[in-house]
Amino acid sequence: MCRGRDAAGGHPVTDGEKTPAEEHAPATRRLHAVDGLLGRREAISELGDALRLLVEYATTTEAPTEELRRAAERIRQAAAPLGERVRDREVLPTADDLLGGVRMYNPVTGSGSALAPPLHIAADNGVAVGTCTLGMAFEGPPTYAHGGVSAMLLDQMLGYAAGIAGHPGMTVRLDTTYRKPVPLLTPLRLTATVQDIDGRRVTATGQLTTADDPDTVLVAATGVFIALRAEQARRLFGRVVNTNRPSRAG
Ligand SMILES: CCCCCCCC/C=C\CCCCCCCC(=O)SCCNC(=O)CCNC(=O)[C@H](O)C(C)(C)COP(=O)(O)OP(=O)(O)OC[C@H]1O[C@@H](n2cnc3c(N)ncnc32)[C@H](O)[C@@H]1OP(=O)(O)O
Asked: What EC numbers are recorded for this enzyme (predicted)?
């Protein structure tokens, strides 16, 4: 378990010691908690940016072999203090807000993830609209994106479309049609909408284009999402512990 931090996930707390926030009235305390949370999210994003820079350089560098070995040692040293306090697999990150849709380490959209492009998604009149630029680390065929990466982006887009339609669910089917290769280092635009809702089953479609040429579809996708029954949600996620519920942050 990740213990010894305030509920907003910001600052390490020593047992018995009053933090500055605890000295103040509840409203001020809440403000401090939010402040700490936002500050932590900013720091997570900053670390994510640094990691993505590292990944991009590490996958494109032609620095001398000895430099690669030195870099590996320095990176291991930088990682060590982070590894001293890690959360359990079944405890949500303190900076996340699951119900509010904040997942800092989502491998597609998470600004804290070294693996995420990251993809930025917003709702526009019921349409999910996403933007991202894929670095060289996402290369599949030379100079183009890996097809699995396009599928990953579209899965997230379709899932988001189901969510904003009020029918969040898990992917049970994803069909992708690759029409043209997806260029790297090029701003991309993705869109997705819900086509059909049939009980617990939601069908959504989406497409991936470049931002400059939104009429030329590079990849199209159709996905089926299933809303979980309460019993399924309990079975799959019942063990997950949320240590950052609003009641504890206030
Ligand atoms: C205003 C609000 C604003 C909110 C903002 C929103 C923000 C949005 C937020 C965030 C976006 C997130 C985006 C995420 C995107 C990524 C999601 C993922 O990566 S999910 C991981 C990969 N998927 C899995 O791991 C599932 C694995 N599958 C399962 O665990 C099961 O299949 C499960 C629990 C999903 C369903 O259980 P069963 O398979 O036993 O099915 P049964 O519950 O009995 O029936 C469900 C219905 O679905 C049909 N079904 C099942 N599989 C199907 C398939 N492949 N195709 C079509 N239909 C299927 C069945 O035939 C059945 O239909 P009949 O009720 O009989 O009509």
From this structure: 3.1.2.2
